[in-house]
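#struct-pred

JT: dropping the chains for the assembly here, can someone run the whole complex?
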Amino acid sequence: MATDSSLPGTAAFRLMVLGTDLANDFAAHLRETGLTPKHLGALAMVEQGFTRTQDDIARLMRVSPSLVVRLADQLEQRGLLERRRDPANRRKHLLTVTGKGESLLSEMGSLAAAVDAELGARLGGRLSGQLDEALAQLMGKLMEDRSRKSP
Amino acid sequence: MATDSSLPGTAAFRLMVLGTDLANDFAAHLRETGLTPKHLGALAMVEQGFTRTQDDIARLMRVSPSLVVRLADQLEQRGLLERRRDPANRRKHLLTVTGKGESLLSEMGSLAAAVDAELGARLGGRLSGQLDEALAQLMGKLMEDRSRKSP
DNA sequence: TATTGTTATACTCTATAACTATA
DNA sequence: TATAGTTATAGAGTATAACAATA
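RK: done, full complex below.
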């Protein structure tokens, strides 16, 4: 892919650096709420309909089930997420995003859109459209892979 | 930028998710060495000539100076990095990557290249070239911004 | 006084393992 | 016996603040 195959010249390295740097920014904006980027990711997964249970979240995000308990606890405490037992299988908790949760997602969506605008300014219209397209496809494949092996 | 401006539809969100996920993969591969992705990042910054002192690293990577001390300590202990006092300004430590450090960077570069190949397979040649171009430009601007305000 | 680096300390995030309950 | 979730515990990673040395 990259013409330079030394570590800093790879797309993988750059994705890692840019992505973790962005995660730091999001973390800073979330700090006052006591939430982390992972809380946000979990909430977004639920809202998008990728997950119905805590187990789904753990697999999709590749985090331990015990962490999901904590994330869900804290999201629930803040009124952003609802847990209720699945009547059909009382081991499961069905998760839904509350109105307040939607608000938070929307608010953070605005922050993300502002970042996108800045990226757009740095890349120009052509390249930034291409970046969007590539990232959307990678994200889609990732979700697809991790959704497999679980109805 | 993105046609969908909800959080999960933004480039910023996807960069964050894909980047931190990749960082986890790198962390797993580094585990046996006792190093983290940040150690690797610091080493790469030094090797690329972006930084000459610990202070530079802290600013470029946006981490605390005290963390840089620990990173440098551990890299030095493993013979990957050398610290020597700057004779011209004895407060500073001039950092250089050792041969062993270059080897590690090269090894992790191969891992990154393998990831790039997989990304390429998922995106196809056209899109993956465009992703490379966009990421390279974003990374360049980032380094440029953070190098400013410090000769 | 300002810069560079260090130490001491404490806190946040996360995983592992053992457990409960349901199936 | 297997699955979904929970609790208890411990460890890794990081920042803050106080400090030392040099300029």
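JT: nice. The longest strand of chain B covers residues 89-97. Residues 53-55, 65-66, 68-69, 89-93 of chain B lie near DNA strand C (CB under 10 Å from a C1').
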